[in-house]
Amino acid sequence: MSLPHALLTSLLERPASGYDLARRFDASLGHFWPASHQQIYRELARMERAGWVAGQDVAGHARKKVWSCRPAGRAELVRWVGQGGQPPVVRDALLIRLRADAVLGPLDLADQVRERLAGHEATLAAYRAIAERDFGGPLDRRGRLQHAILRAGIGLEETSAQWCRTVLAELDEHA
Amino acid sequence: MSLPHALLTSLLERPASGYDLARRFDASLGHFWPASHQQIYRELARMERAGWVAGQDVAGHARKKVWSCRPAGRAELVRWVGQGGQPPVVRDALLIRLRADAVLGPLDLADQVRERLAGHEATLAAYRAIAERDFGGPLDRRGRLQHAILRAGIGLEETSAQWCRTVLAELDEHA
DNA sequence: CAACCCATGTAAAAAGTTACATGATTAA
DNA sequence: TTAATCATGTAACTTTTTACATGGGTTG
Question: How deeply is A41 buried, as exposed, middle or buried, from its count of CB atoms within 10 A (0-12, 13-18, 19+)?
Fold first, then answer.
């Protein structure tokens, strides 16, 4: 499981409340490791018990707590980064649908593929906007690596979008 | 959840025992929807209760059963293919590791990236062998669609491999 | 007769999703 | 003052992973 390590990374970049983390995940890191606020709060509580993070109450706010990474959390993150792991599994139901369509006869999947294509194009536009805004100028090591992560997303979206187009051609041509 | 539908699709292509399905998933469909034998057996039991599949004992084998898709299963598959769904989430821990490396300082990730690259290249070679063997000649609709599914895998592996190379260049250059 | 593949399961743990719930703060 | 957003949680459920377990058939 990597959610705690994604959270530790984000907290090292800048301390934040659970709510902030949830929004941060929606906006950036979460493109690569989505997490709901429920997961985040549960994980923060676990990490506090483990001594990896500490929460500081915020003056003037009844419930808000700002979390930061403690030395033990940093050590755990270093350990985890070093240990390696398997490439991710991707389970795409659309591919199963296509295969089912292949065996059952035409089932009108073009609209679903078009919808998927639109999603890839939208995500791609968002990634490119971030790339231009945050990584347009000269970069230090940290910036270059963060840019590389974004490029992974851009590459996959481009490839998926292009694949959708070939499938649409296939489906339209022999409709 | 799509595992039952992946199984129905596979059984429509050709009836099989749970064991056969597990091996079939290891070899082909499972690249796009991995499933362990435990999942498969449990799902077959559920689908039998639902009336979607029927198991036929095999003469001369104590335990072996061959499953096939019943009309209700076929109807369910048609329904599910039509209903659409979200694009898959991909959670790649290597990207989190890279981002942690970016904030913690160099943590020697090049070997992990190389390992990942080797994996992509191996998978790519396997996919290309299948493409040549099964989809080298003229194809009917079914073949064309199955080929399209394989091309999705090929495209993603190519893109991922290429990305690994750029990251290695980045990591080596500024080691 | 031993090793290996065939064939099927149970059990427990881990991870993620969905639904429900509540109160505080801020801006119109 | 009311609506939106901030902020935090609990509970139940589904799915996936990992470990354990067992016995039949085949081949050297």
Answer: middle
